[in-house]
Amino acid sequence: MGRHDLVSSLILFFIGLFIVFYSPQYGLGSAGTPGSGFMPFLTGLVICSFSIITFLRAFLNKSVGVEKIWAKIKFRKLIFTIMMLIVYTLLLEKIGFIICTFFLILMLVRYVGSQNWFTSILSGSLGSILSYLLFETWLKAQLPKGILGF
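Request: output the structure for the sequence above.
Response:
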């Protein structure tokens, strides 16, 4: 942490503050019936909170050690994840939400998360079914039906 964290946390704080001040014009509503400005307002508060924490940590930490930000990143897994997300978005309308989400989670858990096949298939199945139930059934969102019709 250091000078860069001080500067970036200040910039993010003012972005969050901007969101907090301008989101009420879209209507906050209440916790039971939130308006369209409710989520941006909460997001602005979270941004402000995390930027204050980052600023304080950078300000109070006087160590000079510089951490290499890209040192621990596995670029093959990063590129694989990006490619899987691109394929997911290209096939989502044609194949459907459940199948695409199953294969996305399966591939990410198997190859990026380095899990065995059983865990990967279980994660893909549960993730796709539970997210379908959450968005389609509970939240009444319209998800792409695809070739199976559900």
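The chain has a mean pLDDT of 88.
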